[in-house]
Amino acid sequence: ASVSEAGDEKKEGTIKKYHVEKSFADRRYKVSSARTYFYLNEASCERNMDVFIRCLEAVA
Length: 60
Prior knowledge:
The chain is mostly helical. The chain is 30% helix and 7% strand. It has one domain (2-25, 36-59). Strand 1 and strand 2 (9-10) form a beta hairpin.
């Protein structure tokens, strides 16, 4: 096995599920906490956003 520059371990015969691009969506500079989520597609992101909005409306 070898390690790519992105830090993913590459093994023969396996397909890597995802990797983190160091410069992509990295908003941690001068922030005490941040979360970045990676979704399968736009539709799954939209569903999660709808759930989040409904939760906000429920407590408002």
